[in-house]
């Protein structure tokens, strides 16, 4: 059976619904030379958040707020999202768009800093959902720290888990590819997580803390 993933992905992005505020976040992301998550990935995050119903969640990689909006829309009205990014200007854009979307300001806590530094300061086993959307070269440090923050039954969702097909190609020995392969190899040996790899966009890995 022939599978044209690019055509399917493009169709899915057009079929899956977006909204004017998220579209604005994507447009502004281009001005910052940032690649936001797709409509399909955003919809997946919203669905996962609705299923988990997290009161406390984390995202590493605020960007201009596409994933921030997706997560907050799936979380309960009492849910608070801690959003971490190195770029304070992009976080300011994300905060403004959260307001435009009529989401209460107290529901998102923006923290400016390196993902690993901020995660290390957050309480262990205290979050129902964590989303990583950072530079894959840092995943060998970020993933263990993120898992430590997830409570039992909670989810860790990792973007760029397949690097758009690079991870599955043995001949690809680029540094970021090798880092992601090593992280995936280590996760396969753990008996305290259940894992599901979704071939969406750059690859979305969903881990459940057992």
Automatic annotation (TrEMBL):
Pfam families: Methyltransf_3. Keywords: Methyltransferase, S-adenosyl-L-methionine, Transferase. InterPro entries: Cation-dep_OMT, SAM-dependent_MTases_sf, SAM_O-MeTrfase. It comes from the Bacteria. This is O-methyltransferase.
């Amino acid at each position: 059976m022939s599978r044209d993933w690019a055509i399917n992905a493009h169709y899915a992005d057009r079929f899956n619904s977006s909204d004017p505020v998220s579209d604005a976040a994507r447009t502004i992301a281009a001005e910052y030379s940032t690649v936001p998550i797709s409509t399909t990935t955003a919809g997946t995050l919203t669905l996962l958040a609705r299923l988990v119903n997290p009161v406390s969640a984390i995202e590493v990689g605020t960007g201009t707020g596409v994933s921030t909006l997706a997560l907050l829309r799936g979380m309960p009205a009492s849910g608070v999202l801690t959003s971490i990014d190195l770029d304070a200007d992009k976080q300011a854009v994300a905060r403004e768009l959260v307001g435009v979307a009529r989401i209460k300001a107290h529901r998102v806590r923006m923290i400016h800093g390196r993902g690993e530094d901020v995660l290390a300061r957050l309480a262990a086993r205290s979050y129902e959902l964590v989303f990583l959307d950072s530079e894959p070269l840092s995943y060998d440090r970020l993933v263990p720290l993120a898992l430590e923050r997830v409570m039992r039954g909670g989810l860790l969702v990792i973007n760029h888990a397949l690097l758009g097909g690079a991870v599955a190609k043995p001949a690809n020995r680029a540094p970021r590819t090798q880092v992601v392969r090593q992280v995936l190899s280590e996760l396969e040996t753990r008996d305290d997580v259940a894992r599901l790899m979704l071939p969406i966009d750059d690859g979305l890995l969903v881990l459940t803390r057992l």
